[in-house]
UniProtKB/TrEMBL annotation:
It holds the Pfam family Acetyltransf_3. This is RimJ/RimL family protein N-acetyltransferase. The lineage of its organism: Bacteria, Pseudomonadati, Pseudomonadota, Betaproteobacteria, Burkholderiales. Residues 25-163 form the N-acetyltransferase domain. InterPro entries: Acyl_CoA_acyltransferase, GNAT_dom.
Length: 207
């Protein structure tokens, strides 16, 4: 793509985008989403997961505050995942590690209520985010990082068309104190047209 000097990464929370698909909508995260996020996470008691961090009743306010602080700093673009038909919040995701100078970012902190898993929601969310990253922000690289123990997530990222780059040892410390090894994946700008075509085919096949 051309024109990268004009690419604009939103920084202030009131300038964050809404990304709309056929089934789901990604809306900017706000403090008022706390109850809806806890309700979504309650579907499967996701805060008990050891391989990712999902907000629960005791942690949701701090979780949102940290995300919004990142948005204010311009390093995070956080979303709630909502079903368009009902408006129900079924999870959350975000861009983070936003690097304007090098035109790259990471998609992460993605989680879905148990009832929304194994549906089109995750594929459509990733498609909307990748399209925005490459076609609006003009990124040259989008990366993903997941727990080395999270086989389901690793397989899902590979299905998107991302390339595995290797293991980052002791990449972060989890809430329970575990020193997590992570697996990193990426999609670069040259690969986006092929990845986009495959994701559109998957979405169309899902009806």
């Amino acid at each position: 793509m051309t024109g990268h000097t004009n690419a604009t990464f939103p920084s202030a929370p009131d300038s964050l985008p809404t990304l709309t698909g056929r089934v789901i909508e990604l809306r900017p995260l706000c403090a008022q989403d706390a109850a809806n996020l806890v309700a979504a996470a309650s579907d499967g008691e996701l805060w008990n997961l050891k391989v990712t961090v999902v907000p629960g009743p005791e942690t949701v306010e701090a979780w949102i505050a940290a995300a919004l602080a990142g948005a204010q700093a311009g390093t995070v673009i956080p979303f709630t995942i909502r079903l368009r038909e009902s408006g129900r919040v079924v999870g959350s995701t975000r861009f983070w590690k936003v690097d304007r100078v090098n035109r790259k970012l990471e998609i992460g902190s993605t989680w879905l209520a148990a009832s929304a898993q194994r549906t089109v929601a995750n594929t459509e969310a990733k498609f909307l985010m990748l399209r925005y990253a490459f076609e609006t922000l003009d990124c040259v690289r989008v990366q993903f990082t997941t727990d080395v123990l999270n086989a389901k997530s690793r397989a899902a990222i590979l299905r998107l068309g991302a390339k595995e780059e290797g293991v980052v040892r002791r990449e972060r410390i989890m809430p329970d104190g575990r020193k997590r090894d992570s697996v990193r994946f990426s999609i670069i700008e040259d690969e986006w047209p092929e990845v986009k075509s495959a994701l559109l085919h998957r979405l169309q096949s899902a009806g």
